[in-house]
Specification:
Blueprint: E1 4-7, E2 10-14, E3 25-26, H1 27-30, H2 41-49, E4 53-55, E5 58-59, E6 65-66, E7 71-75, H3 81-85, E8 93-97, E9 101-106, H4 120-124, E10 136-142, E11 152-159, H5 160-171, E12 176-184, E13 191-195, E14 204-215, E15 219-228, H6 235-242, E16 266-274, E17 281-285, H7 290-296
Antiparallel strand pairs: 1-2, 2-7, 3-6, 4-5, 4-7, 8-9, 9-11, 10-11, 12-15, 12-16, 13-14, 14-15, 16-17
Length: 302
């Protein structure tokens, strides 16, 4: 079991990097994903270099070895985490772009939009090519959101016409998304349709079971594909929790048992839509984050 506690200015974590591999690892590798604020190799290396990570009470070095049961501590003020976390997100990944809109990969750990200094919108404003159309937007606009902990593609409008067209498409539910999630336990189903209202509004998700594997804390975990037909806040997380199989790493809807070692196991992997200007059908697919790939080969796929 992994324990992560916030105590004053120190986050403490019992190391459990890979539930299928108990071998020791160097701290530079073993700390990746161990703290929700350090999601990349670069951010971990920076934290070690700054003397912020301790192993069993001793300041860690990049070559320090960690084993199961070792106590890792990250010493830093919470409001300074963003500075470490976003070092690896300054270079955004543009998946697709034209003169009217674009699609950008959002990594877990960064918010899509808001008043903060480091948001996907603020980073993208320095990465996309400015539109040459008459109704261009001075700053590209994210037309939808992904949760901070969720990995996946986000659509951006570069013109007012594209923003309006994509907004209407989301309202009419003609933009389709597919998600992958690793959930607690093994459902006794192969597929399911969930219609449970969220905040008194219609919410509809469809689930396909892909395969299960053994997992610490819960005994087993199952990889599922999710097709949200509506777009309510935290819809997938709430719907999976309401059937008794919350997403691993979900601290809001996981119940009494918690698995926090590698963050939230939820990623958007496909997005398809009709271009608001050219009317072309666009489909964008992205790979699963690395933490999913570590367990993919363990799944008992049909």
């Amino acid at each position: 079991m992994v324990y992560i506690l916030l105590m004053n200015e120190v986050i403490i974590s019992k190391w459990n990097h890979d539930p299928f591999n108990s071998k020791s690892k160097r701290l530079q590798e073993g700390a990746i994903g161990q703290f929700t604020h350090l999601t990349s190799r670069k951010s971990v290396k920076k934290a070690i270099k700054n003397g912020l990570i301790f192993v069993n009470g001793t300041k860690g070095e990049t070559g320090t070895w960690v084993s199961l049961g070792d106590i890792l501590a990250l010493k830093e003020l919470p409001n300074k985490f963003d500075q470490i976390e976003t070092e690896n997100t300054r270079e955004t990944i543009v998946l697709w772009e034209d003169n009217a809109c674009a699609c950008v990969l959002k990594r877990a750990g960064i918010v899509t939009k808001g008043n903060g200094k480091y948001t996907l919108e603020s980073l993208v404003s320095r990465s996309l090519i400015k539109s040459t159309l008459d109704d261009y937007l001075p700053v590209p606009l994210a037309v939808h959101r992904l949760d901070k902990a969720t990995h996946g593609p986000v659509l951006f409008a570069k013109t007012t016409g594209a923003a309006s067209g994509l907004g209407v498409a989301f309202e009419k539910r003609t933009i389709h998304k597919e998600y992958m999630a690793l959930i607690e336990g093994t459902p006794c189903i192969t597929e399911a349709i969930i219609r449970v209202k969220i905040n008194d509004k219609e919410a509809h998700s469809e689930i396909e079971i892909l395969g299960s594997t053994s997992w610490p804390v819960f005994g087993s975990a199952t990889l599922v594909k999710v097709y949200p037909k509506t777009g309510r806040t935290h819809q997938i997380r709430k719907h999976l929790a309401c059937i008794g199989h919350p997403i691993l790493g979900d601290q809001l809807y996981c119940g009494d048992k918690k698995y926090t070692g590698q963050g939230l196991f939820l990623a958007c992997t496909k997005l398809s839509f009709t271009h608001p200007v050219t009317k072309e059908n666009i489909e964008i697919s992205v790979d699963l984050p690395r933490k999913f790939k570590h367990i993919a080969h363990k799944l008992c796929l049909p």
